[in-house]
Queue: 3 jobs
Job 1
Amino acid sequence: MKIVVVTGSPRKHGNSFAMTDAFIREAEQCGHTVKRFDAAFMKIGGCHACQTCFKTGKACSFDDDFNLIAPSILEADVVVFTMPVYWYSIPAQIKGVIDRIYSFCIAGKEISGKKYGLITCCEEDDLTVMDGVRIPLQRSAALLKWEMVGEVLVPGVLEAGDIDKTDGCKQAAELAHKF
Ligand SMILES: Cc1cc2nc3c(=O)[nH]c(=O)nc-3n(C[C@H](O)[C@H](O)[C@H](O)COP(=O)(O)O)c2cc1C
C-alpha cells in the first residue's frame, strides 16, 4: 500500500517522532511504500477559503509546501497523522495540511475510500486530553469516507524521550500491521 505520513511536531527527537519512526520502520518491513512529510519543517499556511483550488494547476493557489504533499495524499491508500496535543487540540504546524484537504473536495477530486491512522501523545495522564485531536479527525474522515484503522494514544509524556518509558513505539509499530 502507498502510505503518506504527515507529522506535526517541531521536535525532531520528540515523542511523536519516535513513534513515527517506529511506525515507518515496521510499515516498510511489511512491504508498504511510505512517504513522510514533516509539516513543522515545511512552509505551510492555512486555507484562504478562496475556492480556487486546482484552478491554477496546483492544489492550492496560494502556492506553498502543501502543494508538495497534495499529490501524494491524492494517490495514497493510507494517510497517517502523527502529532502531539497542543492546548487540547491539533498543533498549528499540521492543521494547515488538514484544512487544505478541503482543496480536494472543492475541486471534486476522488479521495474517498482511503484508510487513516493517528499517532498522538500528550503530557497529562488522561486519555480524553487527546479527544481534541481524535474527534476532529474522526469526523472529517467520516465526511471524506475514510476508514479509521487505528489510533495510538499515549498520555503521560512530556519531555523528549519520555516515550521510551511507555509502549508507545511498540503500539505505533503494531499500527503498521493494521493496513
Ligand atoms: C504549545 C504546547 C501546548 C501543549 N498543550 C498540551 C495540552 O493541552 N495537554 C497536554 O497534556 N500536553 C500538552 N503539551 C505537551 C505535549 O503534548 C507533550 O510534551 C508531547 O509529548 C510533545 O510531543 P513531541 O515530543 O512529539 O513534540 C503541550 C506542549 C506544547 C509545546
Job 2
Amino acid sequence: MRWQPAVDGDVVAGRPARFVAAPATTEEASRILRAAAEQDLAVVIRGGGTKLEWGMPPRRLDLIVDTHRLSGVVEHAAGDLITVVRAGTPLGDLDFGTQQLALDSPLPGATVGGAVAAGTSGPRRLHYGAARDLIIGMTVVRPDGTVARSGGKVVKNVAGYDLGKLFAGSYGTLGLITECAFRLHPVPPERAVVLGEAPVAEVGALLAAVRAEQVVPSAVEVDRTGSGPVTVAVLVEGTAAGVRDRAARLEKCLSGATGDLPPWWGTLPWPPDGVGVKLTAALSKLPSLLAAAPEVTIRGSAGAGVLYAHVSSDIPATIARLRTATTRAGGHAVVLTAPEPVRQRVDMWGPVPALDLMRRVKDRFDPGHRFAPGRFVGGI
Ligand SMILES: Cc1cc2nc3c(=O)[nH]c(=O)nc-3n(C[C@H](O)[C@H](O)[C@H](O)COP(=O)(O)OP(=O)(O)OC[C@H]3O[C@@H](n4cnc5c(N)ncnc54)[C@H](O)[C@@H]3O)c2cc1C
C-alpha cells in the first residue's frame, strides 16, 4: 500500500493535502479508505487533475487518493459491446478498435472516473447519451472502506441500487469509483461535419431547420465568441452514402459547407484561470438564452441543451443575468470554476430543488462528511 507525505503540487483548489495514496486495486483502495476513516481524514479523489478546481474548495483536506495506478481495461466483451475499465484510465488511452466508448471529455488528460464524477459529456451526448447513460455498472469504495457494486455487464440489468446514476456528477463527494462497466458503440464507417453561421436573432430558425431535416445528427454544437455571429456545427455519422445524403441536406438548410471538426469542437470556452459557467435550458429556449447575454462567449450542445460560458467582465452581475435567463429557459446556471475572489462573491450553484434528497444521499454514503467536504451544492 502506498501512502506518502504530500509534496508541493498536492493541492486542491488552494488547499494543501497532508498525504497522498495511490491504490492499484479496489482491495488496496478499500484498505486505504478504511484506515483514513479510522483516523477521520478528509479525502479528495484525484484523477487526471483536470477538474480539481471545479465546485467549491474542500473545507478540509488530509489525504488525496490518486487514481493513476488504478488504470487499464479489465475486460472488453466485443460481442456484447461492453467494456469494464478502471477509473484512473485516461479516456484518451482507450482504444477498442472498431468499437468506441462514446464519451467525449472537454479536457485532455481526463480520466474515466473524473469524467463520470464531474458528469462531463461532450458533443456526441446528443446521440449516444451522457456519461451516466453509458454506464451499466460500477464498483465503488465507500468512505468507510466498504466495496459496493451495482449493475452488471448486461445492458438491461435492473437489480439493486443504481450507483452509476448517483455517482455521475457527484464530484467525488460520495466515494471512490474504481471501475466502470460501459456500453460501447460501433465506430461509424463515415462521418461529416456541416458548418453554418447566423446572427443570434436568427439562430433559433436555423436550429429549427436542422431539426426539421430529420438527419439524426450525432451532435449539434454552437459557438459564439463575444458579440459575433453564432457558428452552428452539425455532425452526422453512418454509412458513406447515408452521410453524403444527410450532409448535402444540411449544407442546404445551413447555407453552409461540409468541413473538418472546428478547433473549438468539444472544448470549454474559458482559459485555465477563467470563470466557467454551465448553462442548461429547454431546447426551444436556447436561442433566447444566447440572446440574453450577447457579449458572453458561449459554446456547447444545442442538441442536448447544455452550454458552457466564459464570463470575463462584470462577473457577479453577468452571472446573475445568466441565472435569470436559464431559470426562464427551464434550466440552471452553475459556476463550475472561478478564481477564489470570485467564489467569495457569487453563488456558485444557484437554486437547487432536490437539495434535501441530495443531503440524505450524502448522509447515507458519507455520514462523517469526509469526502470532498463542502465541494458540492449546499455545502455537501
Ligand atoms: C449527495 C449527492 C446526491 C445525489 N443524488 C442523486 C440522486 O438522488 N439522483 C440522481 O440521479 N443523481 C444524484 N446525484 C448526482 C448528481 O446530482 C447528478 O447526476 C448531476 O448533477 C448531473 O450532472 P450532469 O452533469 O450529468 O448534468 P446534465 O446531464 O448536464 O444535466 C443538466 C440538466 O439538464 C437536464 N437534462 C440533461 N439532459 C436532458 C435530457 N435529455 N432531457 C431533459 N433534460 C435533460 C438535467 O435534468 C439537468 O437539469 C447526487 C449527487 C450527490 C453528490
Job 3
Amino acid sequence: MGSNPRTAPAPMIVEDWDQLTFRVNREAYRSAEVFARERGWVWMHTWLYLGHETEIPNPNDFKARTLGGRPLIFCRDTAGEVHAFLNSCPHRGTVLCRENEGSTRLFQCFYHAWTFRNNGEVAAIPDAGAYESTDEFRASMGLRSVPRLEIHEGFVFISFDPDVPPLLEHLGDAADYMSMIEQQHVGGMTTLPGTQLYGVRGNWKLAVENAMDGYHFAPTHNTFVGYLRESGYAVTDDNQYAYNLGNGHGLLVLTGHGGRISMIWEPRFGEDERIRTDAHRAEMTQRLGEQRAHHVADESHILFVFPNLLLFDIEGLSIRQLEPVAPDQTDVRAWQLVPRNEDPETRALRMKTVVSFVGPGGLATPDDIEAYEAVQRGIQATAGSGLPELDFSDMSRGMADEVKGVQGRSIDEGAMRGFWRHWVDAIGLDDGIEVNGERPASFLSGRDVR
Ligand code: FES
Ligand SMILES: [Fe+2]
C-alpha cells in the first residue's frame, strides 16, 4: 500500500473472518483511477437501468438520458418498438437530440441537418449525391443502437457490451421482486410524468450504502421517526432483514415502520384509506393466493439492482437511478411508480405522503444526502496520511451473527458487504480483496442467506 494519494492502493477491501471485520478502502470513494475503472469495467460491461417503458407510452415518444457518461436517446418508434440509441450524430458526432423529452418521428441534427427516423434509419442527407454509392453509404450511417436492450416487467435495461448474459440471468433473484411490484395492482404500474433530478456531492456507492443501511434510520431520520410516533405508529427494527441477492443486488425487507399507501395501512393515512386498503388486500389474496399476496402486500422492500437502480417500495414506490459524474459527484434521477388504475383519493394521499418523505424535499431524502455528502467530506481526513491502515471504513456489523448462521438484520451491514464483494470483482482488480480466515459456507447468495 502506497501513501501516494494519486494511486489507488490495493486491496480495496479487507475481509477478516478471524477478527470479524470488513473494511472498505476510502480510496474507493475518492480516487479518479477507481472512477475510471468503474466507467470502463462496471458501466461498460453490465446491464444498466435505462428507464421504465411507461415513460415513453406512445409511439414517437422520446427521452434524452445519460448512462455511464454517454448521452442516449430512449424512444419508442412509430411502430411502437422501444429503442436506445447513442445520442450522437453518426456524421460528426454532434449531440443529435437536444431536448430532454418530447414526441417526434424524426431527429434532425442542427449541425448539417442530417435527419434520422425514430427507428434509427437515415431519413435524409442534404446533398446526398455528393457521396458515392449513396444507398450503401446511407445504410451504414444509421443511428447507433446500444448493443443490448431487454425489458423486464416494464423496466428497460441496456448494456454497452454485446456479450453480457441475458438480463434475467443478471437480475437473478432480484427479478421476482420486480415482478412483485408489477403484481401489486390489477392493471399493473405506471410512472408518473416528471423526473426528480438532483446532484449529490458524494460518490455513487454512498447512495447504494445508504439505501441498504437500516442502521442509520433512527438516528439520521429522527424528525421523521418522531412524527411517526406522534401520529400513532410504533417504530421498531424487529423482524426486518437484509439479504444479498447475488450479482451485487441487495434487498431490505422492512416491516417495522412506514406503512405503504394501499398496502399497509397506518393511522396517519386516515379511516377512508383503511377501508380501501382492506378491500385491496382481499382482492390481492384472491388474485395471487394467500402466500404470494403476503409477500407482495405485507412487507416493505428496498431493492438495489446492481449497479444503478434503486426501488424504494416503502410509503409509495420510488424508482431511483444513479449516474456517477465524478468520484465525488452523482446525479440522481427519481420517478414515482403508481398503480395504473387508482382511486383518486388514494392517489392524492400517495402523492402527499411520498413528497413528505422520500421526495427530494421530504423529511428523509435531505437527511440522507447530508449524510453521504458528509461522508465524502469526512473521508478527506485520512487521505494520503501516511497511515493507510486508518483510511478504511468499517462495515462489520452483523458478521458475528453471520458466522452463527443467524439471518442478517436490516440494521446490520450484510447487504452492503454483498454489494462491495461484487463491486470489487466487477472492477477487475486482481488484488482488490484480501480475505483472512474462513468465510461461512452459505452466505454468498440467495434470499435466505446474507
Ligand atoms: S454532425 Fe450531424 S449532420 Fe453533421
Ligand atoms: Fe435514510
